[in-house]
Amino acid sequence: MSTVKQGEKVCSISVIIPILQGDDSWQALLADLVAFPESSEFLFVSNGMAPHDLRDQLTEYGLNSRSNWHCTTRGRAIQMNHGALHAKSEYLLFLHADSRLSHSAVQQLLDTLESHPDTLLYFDLKFRDQSFLLMQLNSWGVYFRSHVLGIPFGDQGFCLPLSLFRELKGFDEEAAYGEDHLLVWAARRQRIRLKCIGAEIETSARKYQEQGWLKVTFRHLWLTVRQALPQFLLLIKDRTRKCRKNKVPSQSS
């Protein structure tokens, strides 16, 4: 059942979950969605058809009446934009299919939305099966990247008003990768505040275990730097141009 107290004012949230055909990790997330208030809706957006027992699974958790499965072409940016286009709530929450949220984390999200309604919110990231030291290094790296550098990624869960998402023109569907990364840079250029919710979201460490920690970590680092550098230069250019525009010309004597 929802953690929201009866009579308490809550924000309406559309939870958008992109799903790759053949991936069933989202099924474990259903139990966590129960924590969201009754005003929430859930949009599962996939490049494949809904499983035959979808309604049975949703009914088990009381989510049937406020959930919809959408089919679109493959691509996380395309799928998330599709979900946002059909969202009916004031706020959007983008979750990866392998994410897990505790009920207290959902409540912390709702509380933060009340106090920071015009902000791009994100969670702290925790890797499941984080049994070896190298994954702890990744967790520290994520904290540094998001809290110090101000660059959270999509696996940390992005929540923002629908109006702001439209202002940012959604996720870049032409990007070969890092559509979440590019959205953050667009928000920074628009001077939209980013804030950590102060609660954890869990994600799978499976790709690190299957492909190797060193290979995955350094590949992500290289791709991030390659994409971040031109975005940083654009940010400096925008800030410089705005400063020049706002500068009051000195009066001649």
Can you give a write-up of this model?
- The chain starts with 12 loop residues before the first strand and ends in a 7-residue tail after the last helix.
- The strands form two sheets. The protein has a five-stranded mixed β-sheet. It has a three-stranded mixed β-sheet with strand order 5-8-6, with helices on both faces.
- The chain has helices spanning 26-33, 54-60, 76-86, 103-115, 133-148, 162-167, 179-189, 206-211, 213-246; strands at 13-19, 41-46, 67-71, 91-94, 100-101, 120-127, 158-161, 194-203.
- The chain is 44% helix and 18% strand.
- It is α/β, with parallel strands linked by helices.
- The protein has one domain: Alpha-Beta Complex (Spore Coat Polysaccharide Biosynthesis Protein SpsA, Chain A).
Strand content: 15-25%
Shape: globular
Number of strands: 8
Poorly predicted runs of 5 or more residues: none
Please provide a brief summary of the model:
With 253 residues, the chain is an alpha/beta fold. Helix content is 44%, strand content 18%.
Salient structural properties:
9 helices; alpha/beta; 253 residues
